[in-house]
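$ fold --in a.seq
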Amino acid sequence: MSVAIEQHGPIPDSNYLRGRVLPTYSIDSIVLHTMVGWIAGADARFKNSSSIVSAHYGVRMYDVPVWQWVSENDVAYHAGNWIVNLTSIGIEHEDAGKYNDPRPDILYQTSGKLVAEIAARYHIPIVRGTGGPGIYDHRDVSDKPTACPDSLDTDRIIQIALNIGVPAPSPVPTVTGVPVLGDSTLRFRKVVENLYAVNPDAPLAAVDAYEAFADKGLRAELMLAQAIHETDWFRFTGRAKADWHNPCGLGVGSNSGAVDCHFPTWEAGVRAHMGHNFAYFLPVGSPHVPGFCDQDPRHFDHKGYTNDVRSWDGHWAVPGNGYGAAVASLL
C-alpha cells in the first residue's frame, strides 16, 4: 500500500518554480531535511510569499499522512543549490524543535516508504549520494553551511527503503535544446510578472529595454531570464551592484582578472548583454549588430557557437556545468 499523502498547497509562486523544463535535469536525487519544529510551522513558512523556500513533502513524527506542498513536476526551493533544486525531491521531517534528539519509529518507517516510492518512480538508486544520483542530507548539497538534517538517521531511512525494493536505474533521457537566437514569445510578459512578484523594486528601465529590443533576433524572454539568474532577481546580492547597470555579469568574477563592467544606463547595459550573446551565437564572420556589439568593452568577433543555452556552459560561466539549463528553467 502506498504511503498516504495529503495536499497542503497551494503555496505562493515566489516559493517554487512551475515545471521542470529540461529533461537534462530530470529528477535523480532525494534530499532529506529536518524542520527544527512542527509541520504547522513549516506550512506557515512555505505559504509566506517572502520566504522564497519550500519542500515537496513533510513527514510527521507521530502520525500520517505525509503532507505535500509542491508537485513532483515542479521545483521546490529547498536545497540551497539551484542545480540540486532542479534535479531533486525535498523531504522535510518533524523534530519538535529538538533536532539533535532521536526520532520515533513511525517517522522512519513513513520516510523510508516515501523514499522507496519516489526512487521507484524516477529510478533513483537508494544509496548515499556522492555527486551523482542518490539520497542526500541537506548539508551535503547546500551552497551555504548547514547542519540539516542534524541527527536524522539517513542511513536508517535508506535501509528501510532498500528493504521495500526499487528497480534498477534507467538510461538518462535524451536532451532537448533551447535556442538563444530567434523570435521572442508572449512568455516575456510572464517572466516580467514573475520578476515583479519576487522583487517589486526591479528596475523598470532594464525590463523596458529588453522588451524594446525584442525584435533584434535574440529571445528577449531568455535574455531577461539570464539577467534574473545573474542578478538574483535584480537584487544584486553578489559582487555586481545595481548602479553598475550590468544585468548579466559581464566581466564580473572573483579572480584578479575580473573586469567588473559598468554601464552608464540600463539601456546601455542591456545592449551590452545582447551584444555579447550576438558575439557568441551569430556565425563567424557575420556583420556586427550596430549599437549592440560595440557596447561591451571586452568586444570580440563572433564565435558561432551552437544556438543552444548549453553553449553558455563553460563559456559564459566557468566551469558553468548546468548554467544554461538553470537559466532556461526560469522560463
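$ fold --in b.seq
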Amino acid sequence: MDYFELIKARHSTRTFTPQPVEKVKLDAILDAANQAPSAGNVQGYEIFLVRKQEQKAALAKAALEQSFMAQAPVVLVFCANPARSSRRYGQRGVRLYSVQDATIACTFAMLAATELGLATVWIGAFDDDAVRQAIHISDALLPVAMLPIGYAGEHPEPTGRRKLEDLVREL
C-alpha cells in the first residue's frame, strides 16, 4: 500500500473478532516498532506483549473500563524506560526522549498493523499504576500507550480532521 493510502486507511477500531493474529504478522509489527527512530538510537522504551485474557481484562480495567480492549487477541503496552535514556541525555532523556521513543515505536507498530490488514486503537487514557500491576512491571517504567491489535469486528467511518489552515502556522 502507498504510504499516503496507508495513513488514510488507518482508523481506530474498538471491536475485534476472536481470530488470532498470525505469528508472522505479529513479528512484522514488532520489527516495525524496533525500526522506529529514537533519540540517539538509544531506544528508551520497552514493549510488553499481552495475550493472556486475565491480563488483557486487567489492562482494560486500568484503561478506565475500556472493556473492548480485552476482545483484542493481542495488546502491546509501550513503556518509556527513562533510565535508559538518562544515561545519554540526563533529565531531558527522562522527561521527554524516552516518552517520545515509546510514542514513535507505537506509531510504527500501529501503521504496520494497518498495512497487514489488522485493526488497532491507540489507548492513552489509563491509570499508570494499574497498568504496571496488570503486567507486573516496576515503577521504573512509565506506561505511555497501549495498542490492542486484531482483526476488525467493525469498520468505522473516517473521522473529520482539522483543515490545514486551522492547524499549520507559517512563520
